[in-house]
From TrEMBL:
Residues 429-438 have a biased composition (Low complexity). Residues 15-73, 405-438, 463-482 are annotated as: Disordered. Residues 463-480 have a biased composition (Basic and acidic residues). GO terms for cellular component: cytoplasm. GO terms for biological process: mannosylglycerate biosynthetic process. This is Mannosyl-3-phosphoglycerate synthase.
Length: 536
């Protein structure tokens, strides 16, 4: 399992590092010479009673550790200056809906100062006003931030006019449009806002608004930066996904430090089953390591980050399906011809784009996914069983209804293979043989996809007590998520100018390069709430 773990929250300035081949070596030292101590010096550290400790030390070989990602050393210190440089180019999007402003303020306080804060709210109107008041007070010392409401009419009109009309819907009982409800839709609004208004930001991160420990948020942001710094595949796009150290629950008056949330347990298991099915359907054997594995451990990672180019290039799902669908989309787009050969590499650390199983050229360039286990326990707002159920059902829906093309068609097509005109066409007998082989392979792949779908239906039936809608009726299939085109399809110049000139809910704080012609003002309400005039 390619999972990177945080060892120290603050490792100091660290030893300056340089890359030598595929390993990181302290500057001024010989490669592989990490210490001036020899084995005899280590013997002096242990008494005879510590024989077990010495055996443990000698039996541990980092090169045998399957959790070490190729090209990344077992242990590395990332200099603070490098982290700060990446954080200074990062925008952190905080989608919120109905959280206590004090809780949101705690989340903001954990975001490193170099980052741009982007608050995307879908709270009711008066609650949003309080959120903006809180944000303006928080940013009074020159902290850059953006805030916008998901119902902003100008943003909806801009999406509708400049390339993403699927993202908007008519308001019931009215003539105007608004951006659809949903977490995924709010995240897409945040991505578009950053890309259009702050194009110098190279990285975009997402942090939930209900986290109750600000220190955890700070670690998450620094872990994002570390993931970008550790990408062993230069030139590839990067996605960093976090696995919490624990998600504590209070049971019988005691804190139970559960390692995995209820929804994550379900979604991770089925994403790995998807990866295993693709391994079975891969005739090249390049996915053999993914068969019956647990490579994917961050399927539901609400805390994740990616390069802006990747964020603009991915198709995105609505609601809570957005995070699991990242994997489904990458497995589909980065699968090579007639197989999912590059897909496991995408899940475990990188893949090369080419023709995928549907015979189309994917939109994505090679992608590296860095999964990082953090140190802080993840405390957040307690959710009821129905909310958890809706989250894992959305994740299963993204798999069930959107299987990668290599598992989703009985007539998988191969991409056209142009031949030089000077060469004669292939003999008919050879072509016929190749076609028969392809048909047989495609049928087996399709059967594996159908078996996976059937297994998901069996899982829903076995969990029928948790599998019903608001009317208590059994739901036989997971919900079908809506899939949106990549944000790159949007005309960012047109979007920026329309939102800038006609906005209703946009607030820009301490962004000298971007000024609104008609700044919003909430001074009267702000003064009543806080007793001070909001900063400009």
């Amino acid at each position: 399992m390619h999972l990177i773990e945080v060892l120290e929250l603050d490792a100091g300035s660290g030893i300056p590092l340089e890359t030598v081949g595929s390993a990181y070596t302290p500057q001024g030292s010989e490669q592989g010479d990490e210490s001036s101590l020899d084995d005899s010096d280590y013997d002096d550290l242990f008494s005879d009673e510590d024989e077990d400790m010495r055996d443990l030390e000698s039996d541990t070989d980092p090169e045998d550790d399957e959790s070490v990602l190729d090209g990344v050393p077992p242990e590395v210190t990332i200099p603070q200056a490098q982290l700060d440089s990446i954080l200074g180019q990062m925008a952190v999007i905080v989608p919120c809906k109905g959280e206590d402003p004090n809780t949101i303020e705690g989340v903001l306080s954990g975001i490193p100062r170099g980052c741009l804060i982007v608050l995307v709210s879908n709270s009711e109107g008066r609650a949003y006003r309080k959120e903006v008041m809180m944000l303006r007070k928080f940013c009074r010392h020159a902290r850059p931030a953006l805030a916008i409401h998901q119902s902003d009419a100008a943003a909806a009109a801009a999406f509708n006019m400049y390339g993403l009309p699927d993202l908007v819907t008519h308001v019931a009982g009215g003539s105007h449009k608004r951006i659809r409800n949903g977490k995924g839709e709010g995240m897409m609004l945040g991505i578009a806002l950053v890309a259009a208004l702050c194009p110098q930001r190279r990285y975009v991160a997402f942090v939930d608004a209900d986290i109750t420990v600000p220190g955890a948020v700070n670690e998450y942001c620094r872990a994002f930066a570390a993931g970008f710094a550790l990408n062993p595949n230069p030139g590839t796009e990067t996605m960093v996904r976090l696995r919490w150290a624990s998600k504590p629950k209070v049971r019988n008056g005691e804190i139970d430090y559960t390692c995995e949330g209820r929804s994550s347990q379900v979604v991770n298991r089925w994403l790995n089953k998807l990866l295993s099915a693709m391994a079975d359907a891969d005739p090249t054997g390049s996915l053999a390591a993914a068969r019956d594995s647990e490579i994917i451990v961050t399927g539901n990672a609400g805390e994740h980050a990616m390069t802006m180019d990747l964020a603009l290039s991915l198709r995105l799902a609505n609601g809570y399906a957005i995070e699991p669908f990242h994997f489904v989309e990458l497995l589909d787009q980065l699968a090579p011809q007639n197989a999912a050969g590059g897909a496991a590499a995408a899940a475990a650390g990188g893949a090369h784009a080419g023709y995928n199983a549907s015979g189309r050229v994917p939109n994505l360039q090679p992608v590296t996914i860095m999964q990082i286990r953090t140190r802080n326990p993840h405390f957040h707002r307690v959710t009821d069983d129905s909310h958890v159920r809706s989250m894992w059902a959305s994740g299963l829906g993204s798999i069930y209804h959107h299987l990668p093309a290599s598992l989703n068609s009985s007539t998988t097509q191969t991409p056209p293979q142009p031949q030089p005109q000077s060469l004669p066409p292939s003999p008919p007998s050879s072509s016929s043989s190749s076609s028969s082989s392809l048909t047989a392979f495609s049928s087996k792949s399709f059967a594996r996809g159908e078996k996976l779908r059937g297994d998901i239906l069996d899982f829903l039936a076995d969990n029928h007590e948790e599998n019903d809608n608001s009317k208590g009726e059994l739901v036989h299939e997971p919900p079908r998520p809506r899939i949106y085109p990549p944000v790159r399809q949007l005309d960012l110049d047109g979007f920026r100018e329309m939102v800038r000139s006609e906005h209703k809910t946009l607030y820009c704080l301490n962004l000298p390069h971007f000024k609104l012609p008609r700044p919003n003002t909430i001074a009267p309400v702000y003064h009543h709430q806080y007793g001070v005039t909001p900063p400009l």
